Amino acid sequence: MLFVAPALLVYATMVVFPIVLSIVFSFTEWQRFQVLSFGTIKHYQRIGSDPVLAKAFANNLVYIAATIVLEGFVGLVLAAVAHRMTRSMVFRAIFFAPVILPSIVIGTLWRRIYATSAGLLNSLLEIVGFEPVVWLGPPFTMYAVSVVSGWIFAGYFMTIFYASMTRIPSTIIEAARIDGAGELAIFFRIEIPLIKNMIMLVLLVIVTGGFKGFDLFQILLRRDPLQSGIVLPTYLIRTFFENTDIGYGSALSMVLTLVVLGIMGITALVNRYVVGRIDEY
Amino acid sequence: MNIRRILDIAWRVLSRAVMIAVLLVYLVPVAWMYSSSMRSNGELLLDPLGLPERISFANYVTAWQMADLGRHFLISISITAIATVIVIFCSTLAAYGFSRLDFAGRKGLYAFFLFGLILPVQSFLVGMFIMFRQVGLLNTIWSVILPTSAVALPLAVLLAKNYFDSLPSSLEESAHLEGAGTFAIYRLIILPLAAPIVVTIITFTVINVWNEFMIPFVMVQTAAKRPLTTSLYVFSTKYSANYALTLAALTMIVTPMFFIYLVFQSQIQRGITAGAVKN
Questions:
Q1: Do the Cβ atoms of A255 and A23 come closer than 8 Å?
Q2: Which residues of chain A lie closer than 8 angstroms to B28, CB-CB?
Q3: In 3-state terms, what secondary structure has residue A196?
Q4: In terms of domains, do B47 and B75 share one?
Q5: pLDDT of B164-175, one tens digit each?
Q6: What whole-number distance in Å separates Cα of residue A136 and Cα of residue A117?
Q7: Range of the domain at B113
Q8: Which of A80, A124, A129, B150 is most buried, most CB within 10 Å of its CB?
Q9: Nearest by CB to B147, which of A14, A84, A164?
Q10: ipTM of predicted assembly, 2 dp
Q11: Separation between Cα atoms, residue A157 and residue B275, nearest integer Å
């Protein structure tokens, strides 16, 4: 018990106690940092009729759909290609690199790349005759952010998928080749089914991560006056932090928590009763 | 046989083409960053794709001074070092307790810890902010060190416990027979044996704490106390018109990280994917 004590102390004071506080705060009436009264449910009543929250939630769903393709699917295809190459080491090392860099560096660099005037992307497009485009504004906002997200994480998920693919016995793939299977058939009929569990796990990471992502939205869009790229995490921080609305901010953080834990819970149940356990691989 | 051969070659060409196209998507932005960081802002605005006329470090010197990068580097280094020590100390001790010792509520407590793996930081962010505000620790390095350590702990405990579970207990048993106490066994036998997993824990803790943005964004508002990440956010907002200066600041932060990655590449890959891939 003594051994567990230091870790427990840090975890309890930094995670558990603040969660309890957040729950209490979400039922508390505030005047800036001043507690007025406890036991109100008005913050939760506001959730149902908040158009900005609905917008943020919808944006989260767009972001998740886009990153499933740009992070997950691209990562899977890159892994399959790398798996068929004899020397893919340099490619894999470079594609993985962005994930170790701070989001502030990548976000700021991409803000420059997307810049309407004198940005890298518009300058390149100008060569082939396109007019300058406002990438970090409607209707492109969410896709522009998702592309950066893909730039960071496609290589990360490629590495994970690649590691699973190398664990497939090469005899299975060779036998299929001898039987005349093409590369696409090998991809869809052998590799994907055999790393199915890892694909499910990555999907879960992308979907729940899609509700938690804050850095890129804040860094790429800054204050985002049109709110075209507002998502739950940025709305939460703006509510509690910039508008000092502690009560509603806490309620929003509970919404985010319940969404993420809910998805985890449903996945766990589906796995237990339908698919079998996810961590058997 | 001929068709097979043609298909084979077509496949090789196609896969190389895909990889090289993707490679460009990674290299062009970075090359552009390096190139632009050495040009004047005027040149950059006139011709964004141009190359620097000469190698010039003037932007670096200016950006270093104006962003006060030396100070913020030091703050980030202190935060990362202290948080890593806390995580290593707490996680290996706790993991040893969970793996080897029998005490009431062990399983429940362990599950309680692992729950932290799936919790979003946002679920405790508001409460944490008010708590730090109440005890007067906002705007100190502790308001970043303690939360980031706590966030790293559950995965560190999980990895270390799994590792201890895989170690045979015969060494400890013989040490125990020799009369060594539990803590002596932990310090002299278990901890040295745990070196590989400790390296993994150090890797992901250092990277995550060093890169952390949201926690200092909320907890530290005093300019002089900001770590590198949020100080760079403020700097690039303040000088948003000066592209060259911002890109020079980025370059100075990224370059040492590229070298570290080059040297410890496989170690770093293992460290960051540790959460998803089981060894």
A1: no
A2: 120
A3: helix
A4: no
A5: 998 888 877 888
A6: 12
A7: 68-238
A8: B150
A9: A14
A10: 0.92
A11: 12
